Amino acid sequence: MTESYFENEKRTFTRDILTTLWRVIVLYAVVTGANSFVTAYDQGLFLRDVVFIPALEMVLLCGLLELCFRYVRTGMDFVLLAGVNLLVSLIILALYELPMSVYLLIFPLLISLFYFSGRLIAFAVLQGLVTLALLYWLSPHLSRMLTVSNAMLAAAMLAGTAMVINSLRKRMFSLANNLVSATEEKQKLLMQNVEMERNSRIDPVTRLYNHKSFHEHLGNILAMQASASMDVHLALLDIDNFKVINDTYGHAAGDVIIKFVADRISDRLEADDFASRYGGEEFGIICVEKNGARFQEQLERIREDIAAQTHELLDGNRVTVSIGFQRLQADMSKEKLFEAADSALYAAKRSGKNKTVQGSTLP
Question: Which residue windows are transmembrane per the record (predicted)?
Fold first, then answer.
């Protein structure tokens, strides 16, 4: 995952927290407003000091945080935690007669966990401890209601929570890293399996499909043709005088010529064509949805491309191929189709080589 993805996720989470803060303000106003009807204090003073003024201060604070969210791109997570800490402080000061409210200082610390940052956790616990000390020393109302032991307990709870949260963060990172490693290993094995499967179907010299793939594909095409009428042609190509090339110039030169012929075949293939190295110096092409004249024209271009080039490693001589092809006839099996194409190839060889012969034209 990219860095921009994590930044977008962080901003989305920050947006959710800001929305939650607005809901907290509404909840605070509703609960304290309802409490004004049962409080022993003067209702007017209670509404002013506990409900309206704190709620207004919190609204202004959230408005400021919204502006920061809109314009601040770097460090918004720290700004948010400081804002949450300040909002919690306003609630604690408004509810000073409830000493347990100081434990609300833990909320910025809890929020920091979801940013997965050790620095942010350290910032949250430090600001919580500083805020607790300032509230205790600067608020006479709170210092009267909050005992020293309660303040120390709150400070210890903040520090302990920070340690637990940091341990959780490290554990989550460890699990995430293990998951990433396992996923990468699984993908690696999958790619290896795909490559092995591909290699089992590909001829290593020509990078065309091999003999096994040729027969599998031809079988599949015939099965499809049985249920849906298609124009299917099979062509067999054989390098002329290949034994002479091997005997005269060596097997290394023969491999180069085989690769050359395969490349010329590949250059002329179209979308629905399937080419393979059928064996030795022989190649096969399976063609669907193409009429005989067009397929013969394509085969002629392949033959001409091969014959047009001279080869330095053959002392400037040319290489030619003979081609025989056959259209699939009604009720013709795979074996009969192959025999007809092979007979056409033999006819091309017998009539002088470097020719393309269509099986249906044979007597």
Answer: 20-38, 50-69, 121-139, 145-165
